[in-house]
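Hello,

Our lab assistant flagged a job as stuck in the queue for most of the afternoon. It eventually completed. Since we weren't sure the result was trustworthy after the delay, we are filing this so someone can double-check. Below is the sequence as submitted and the structure that was eventually returned. Let us know if re-running is recommended.
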Amino acid sequence: MIVQRLHSRPEDPDHIAARQEFYLIEKQYEMDKTIQVRPFEIFRSKANRYRTLVACLLMFGGKILKLAISMAVADQAKTSFLVFML
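-- returned structure --
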């Protein structure tokens, strides 16, 4: 059991802490199953809309940065190749 391995301690040979953690995980899972999630729940509050916007901007910025770096590397490789050919 993963939880047992994570919480193993020499002073706890019966893995009581791991059993408590696993019990809490089971109870949380049971509670989560009872919650009904509505479509587009993430956009219902202002804070969640802000978080979504920030996440999208970060992902978009990462894509643009990767594109810019790859273009710069390709341009540098072209320049190096031209210098080598001369």
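-- support follow-up --
The delay was a queue issue, not a problem with the job. The result is valid. Residues 1-35 form one domain. The longest helix spans residues 46-85.
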